[in-house]
């Protein structure tokens, strides 16, 4: 059983400049990372410190009580923290991206989400995301009852669920998908500890079980047809994936640094030089594509063409990061096989980059259909 979530006793770092605060947190996270990985343990203490540092409201505008950080600040924060504890950064990304989507809607669509953003900032709430598992079709069931719905289902890969406050999820009601925020303390909500995995162990991405949970009508934030693209998902594609892959970029950059340091003693060997060069090339391609993702998030508008571009870039970033991970093991040699180095842990953590939507074939089909001026629906509803 993982240790219960608890508030920290140390002095908060919320008043330090952002970069210094993040580095301070990173040092603490790095000291715990190996033990969390070895024990399949959720990073509860790390999230207590994240809450104390007010990072949960970092991207919320100052006029709504948040930190007023830019989107790029969020990505850089995740990238830096990922160098120290991959799982912590990934779970934090799954909070930051739905917050970023709400901020985008408030700033660009004048959507009435300011109440939610003020609550997150004022109450220091942590959101949990299930969209990557649900995607277009949604999962779970919603039965209409007096005053709302009864929702049941199992939500997989809910990163950070042991520290979270509000589950941002969806459920099927006939041919519609209903979106709602469900408090984790609601009757019928429980966590099933299933997260025994190859990597990203500290993210605590367990299953969340919804057993006849009452969701009031007023809590339904969105209704959409099941299995087809909706403007909501174009916004998710725009703001979520650059933040998620900032985490994997940070992991890969840490892996690269460790491998180069280890390989220096063999730097006169041609094979070492070539292997390091291959690693550098793969990582450079991933970084270039990720920078383009960040530029799209900063400049583009949600829409099918933008989504197709973002999903193509997500595939380029992911495949090159995985290639870089493979090259890293080749360059490090047999030493990387031992747990005395964190190289093998970083390699394992990077493997999770392959599992975020869209899968390769679905992404390629989507890119082809959009390029051919075809409708995207019914072909990527994974």
Distance between the termini: 33 Å
**Uncertain regions spanning at least 5 consecutive residues:** 1-14
**Overall pLDDT score:** 93
Strand order of the largest sheet: 1-4-5-8
Q: Give the number of domains.
A: 3
Radius of gyration: 21 Å
In N-to-C order, the SSE pattern is HHHHHEHEEEEEEEHHHHH
What is the name of the CATH superfamily of the largest domain? Butyryl-CoA Dehydrogenase, subunit A, domain 3
Global shape: globular
Report the structural category: alpha+beta
Number of helical elements:
11
What portion of residues is helical? 40-55%
| Beta-strand residue fraction | 5-15%
Write down the CATH topology of the largest domain: Butyryl-CoA Dehydrogenase, subunit A, domain 3
The CATH class of the largest domain is identified as: Mainly Alpha
User: How many beta-strand elements?
Assistant: 8
CATH architecture of the largest domain: Up-down Bundle
